[in-house]
Amino acid sequence: MPVIPEYRLDGKVAFLAGEGDGITPALAGALAEAGAKVFILGPHQPVVEGGMLEVARAGGQALGLFGDPADPASVERSLEALLPLWGRVDILINNSRTPFARPFEEVSPGEWDEVIRRNVGAAYLLCSRIGREMLRQGGGKIVNIISGLAERGLWNSAAFCASQGAVLQLTRALALEWARRNVQVNAVGVGWLTTEDIPDTEAQKDLLVRYIPLKRKGRPEDVAPLVVYLASDACEFTTGQPIYLDGGLMSHP
């Protein structure tokens, strides 16, 4: 991914919390290619190791830890590993997002609480703990990667939609609260994503793809450049905004 000088992240430290959606390694590689050191926290081995491999391919520096981004102990262990070596956190990319699909009347109280814990809880914990480091340093960039379902409904997805809407509102409120303390907080709303390399003509046989105005699902390389921009010093006057990468779905009636 070519990186123009204004978007360089040289000397920056990025904390990337990811799930198994396939885009975390691409985000890690893009951040490293832009010049950032990258710490990766993820609950699964392929997430962390895949991200570290992409950083290595970009010639960057990476650290990683297996752990749940919604678990306070995991976040603390991450900072205990990161701060003594790199001394600061300039960028938080929260890609911790767990889908859940079930008819609302069948969702148990325990399932509802777990969806909120994993999605909203992770966003709260990461923004709170790492945000305090940014406030201490005098600034930083936070990017919460959410679903377009933060603003659109979908059947059999009420719990997940509610969790994404909560993270969007957290993004907006934090942006206002920390604006005068030089911390910009934005969100990237992703649509339907795929990591499969399928020709567009084949992909368009999928009924879901036919509904997307651009007639294809999103790919990791669609998300990474925007995340790098939002994490860069070039992005100084944008905060509290959700930016949707969804092939036009948010404009679809």
Question: Characteristics of this structure?
Answer:
globular; 8 helices; 253 residues; 17% strand
Structure notes:
By secondary structure, the protein is an alpha/beta fold. The protein is 43% helix and 17% strand. It is built from eight helices and seven strands; from the N terminus they run βαβαβαβαβαβαααβ. The protein has helices spanning 24-33, 45-57, 72-86, 109-137, 158-177, 200-203, 207-211, 220-231; strands at residues 13-18, 37-42, 62-66, 91-95, 140-147, 183-190, 242-245. Strands 3-2-1-4-5-6-7 form a seven-stranded parallel sheet, sandwiched between helices. Helix 3 packs parallel to helix 4 and helix 4 (109-137) packs parallel to helix 5 (158-177).
Strand order of the largest sheet: 3-2-1-4-5-6-7
Return the structural class: alpha/beta
The largest β sheet comes out as: 7 strands, parallel
Strand content: 15-25%
What's the order of the H and E elements?
A: EHEHEHEHEHEHHHE
Q: So how many helices?
A: 8
Helix fraction?
40-55%
Basic shape: globular
- Cα distance spanning the termini: 33 Å
Number of strands: 7
C-alpha Rg (nearest Å): 17 Å
* Arithmetic mean of pLDDT: 93
Low-confidence stretches: none
Furnish the topology, listing elements before pairings.
Blueprint: E1 13-18, H1 24-33, E2 37-42, H2 45-57, E3 62-66, H3 72-86, E4 91-95, H4 109-137, E5 140-147, H5 158-177, E6 183-190, H6 200-203, H7 207-211, H8 220-231, E7 242-245
Parallel strand pairs: 1-2, 1-4, 2-3, 4-5, 5-6, 6-7
Helix pairs in contact: 1-2, 1-8, 3-4, 4-5
